[in-house]
Amino acid sequence: MTFAKIVVINGPNLNLLGLREPGVYGAKTLSDIERELRERAGARAELLFRQSNGEGDLVTFVQEAGLEGAGVILNAGAYTHTSIAIADAIRGAKATVVEVHLSNVHARESFRHHSYLSPVCLGVIAGFGDRSYHLALEALLAA
Question: What residues does 48 pair with on adjacent strands?
């Protein structure tokens, strides 16, 4: 399965990257990560970037991507640990999703150890900072 289009979806508070807890999430902004991913993808895939602090928006973004056959890199932020709706959107739209986390969620608070999304995702990449997105991109391009 080759993806001509990959949608990179970011959830709540990821618009604050670079400002929010740089010791945990790194110093790069979301714009920095987007620029680097575009450079890395080159002509291999069209990338579309979406970010929202609202769960319903993330559901819509996942549905749209899945229904059009795009691959998805998803950092749902805190919704990873709470959102059955996003998991249902992944399953319902038959989206191919790589779940991404900047930090190693399993080395953090116990409530971050459970993901409602992981069981319906192609894979999970966590703990590599902004490189987690690069690894997810390569995984989807190789899928």
Answer: 7
Please give the structure tokens belonging to residue 65.
């991507």
81 catalytically annotated: no
Amino acid at 69: G
Question: How many Cβ atoms from other residues are within 10 Å of residue 23's Cβ?
Answer: 7
Catalytic entry in 79, 101, 133, 134: 101
Both tokens of 101, joined, read: 């986390």
Over the stretch 19-64, which tens digit does the pLDDT of each residue have? 776 666 667 999 999 999 999 999 999 999 999 999 999 999 999 9
Q: Is 134 known to be catalytic?
A: no
User: Whole-model pTM?
Assistant: 0.92
**Which is catalytic among the residues 25, 79, 116, 133?**
25
Tokens of 15: 């618009």
